[in-house]
Amino acid sequence: MRALVIEDDPVQVKLVDAALRRMGFEVITAEDGIDGLIALFDHDVFDLAIVDWHTERLSGLSFLCAVRAEPRFDSMLVLMLTAEMNKDNVIKAIKSGASQYVVKPFKQAVMIAKLQEMGFVEVSQNGLPEGAQRLGIPQDAETATIVRTKRKERGEAD
User: Fold this and answer.
1) Phi, psi for 144 (deg, rounded to 5)
2) Number of domains within the chain
3) Sequential pLDDT tens for the chain (158 residues)
4) Are 83 and 103 in contact (CB under 8 A)?
5) Residue 92 maps to which CATH number?
6) Which domain holds residue 105?
């Protein structure tokens, strides 16, 4: 599985990268939304994007809106990562297509818990970690409603 991390703070990049690799993700990083879009189009297939709200050149929210306007990226889940605690911004991100929202600073366990809520689970056999696997069903009701609405708009079955 592949994840795109858009974050301009090197410390945050290391923290997020470590959490994702621990779950078995291949991680590609970008410093801002423009570099993120370039990486997205260069690599084409990502299961997950973790996006900082405030980045230079193109904000995380603008990146999110650009991605959600492109149907081929509908299946990619997006977790917004930011110091923004304003409830209106959280609502704006979710309505724009974010799957989850994490406020900085955060602990690695919080990131992993959010990923699990998004349907990414650690899979093990004989007690040995094998990485992460994505379940096809979003676990929070609001995200599930958004996904169902988008699928209906495209004429897809639930």
Assistant:
1) -60, -40
2) 1
3) 899 999 999 998 998 898 888 888 999 999 999 999 999 989 878 999 999 998 888 999 999 999 999 998 989 999 998 887 788 888 888 899 999 988 888 887 888 888 888 888 664 444 334 444 444 434 445 555 555 666 666 665 55
4) yes
5) 3.40.50.2300
6) 2-153
Assigned domain for 53 exists: yes
Q: How far apart are CA 62 and CA 135, in angstroms?
A: 27
In which region does residue 110 sit, left (phi positive, over 0), alpha (psi from -120 to 50) or beta (all else)?
A: alpha
Q: Which residue has the tokens 């699990």?
A: 116
Kindly write down the DSSP assignment for every residue of the chain, as one continuous string: -EEEEE-S-HHHHHHHHHHHHHTT-EEEEESSHHHHHHHHHHH---SEEEEES--SSS-HHHHHHHHHTSGGGTT-EEEEEES---HHHHHHHHHTT-SEEEESS--HHHHHHHHHHTTEEEEEETTEEEEEEE-SS-SSHHHHHHHHHHHHHTT---
The two three-digit tokens of residue 126, written as one number: 């004989």
